[in-house]
Write a structure and sequence with these properties.
- 0% of the residues lie in helices and 53% in strands.
- It is mainly beta and 87 residues long.
- It is built from no helices and six strands.
- It has one domain.
- The protein has a six-stranded antiparallel beta sheet, with no helix packed on it.
- The protein is globular, with a radius of gyration of 13 Å.
- This is Adenylate cyclase.
Length: 87
């Protein structure tokens, strides 16, 4: 995945994301490269960390985002997000 040369529209914003059995707060830094995440509901409640990510613009407000967990136990996670409304 190629890193974007433009700052994404979600840089500097915070979002609550919900998956089956897991809710997290993702806070994207103004630099367009770093994200802080804290799991707020689910088996891993309280887990938090910061990662550098790469992104690829897919279309419209859709981006594919990839990062490597610090412990490397999980391979790169690729997700598609829409800009949505900041929480």
């Amino acid at each position: 995945m190629n890193a974007s040369t433009q700052r994404p529209p979600f840089a500097g914003k915070t979002f609550e994301v919900r998956y089956a059995g897991l809710t997290a707060i993702n806070a994207y830094a103004d630099d367009g490269v770093h994200m802080r995440c804290e799991i707020t509901e689910g088996d891993f409640t309280g887990a938090k960390g910061e990662v550098a990510y790469t992104l690829q613009h897919v279309a419209g407000e859709i981006y594919a985002i990839s990062w490597q967990e610090a412990d490397r136990a999980v391979g790169p996670t690729r997700s598609t997000y829409t800009q949505g409304s900041p929480s």
